[in-house]
Design goal:
Elements: H1 5-13, E1 17-21, H2 23-27, H3 41-44, H4 47-50, H5 53-58, H6 60-76, H7 81-89, E2 96-100, H8 106-110, E3 115-117, H9 137-142
Parallel strand pairs: 1-2, 2-3
Amino acid sequence: MEIDQGLLDALQNAKHVLVFTGAGVSAESGIPTFRDALVGLWARFDPAVLATREAFRRDPTFVWGWYEWRRMQVCNAQPNLAHRAIAELSAIVPKLTLVTQNVDDLHERAGSIEVIHLHGSLNKPRCFACARFAIDPGCVKTH
């Protein structure tokens, strides 16, 4: 991949580069977005039924099943050129912070380190009662 020399110079001279990504970066890997009118997840599923505390309390088996379906989509997806380019960028800038709205782990699998997930991660569900990761044995024993 060829990078414009002016951009490359600016990046190399930067003290800190912030990269912010959203659903579009993972859509290329086959991960459905939420809001796309034709193929978005909310075009097929009601967020009030799946993406609230009340929905989880009302039908946890259904909601866990939906999130497991999404998690399996991510497990079967591969990082794309954008994920890899961002990971490679961290090697040429002094400091890179990567913030994503995505709940997948494609940035990490492409080689990015210290990814900030604004909306959490499908691979790290949290307990409603104590906010610890749900796979934490201490959480399972007490809740």
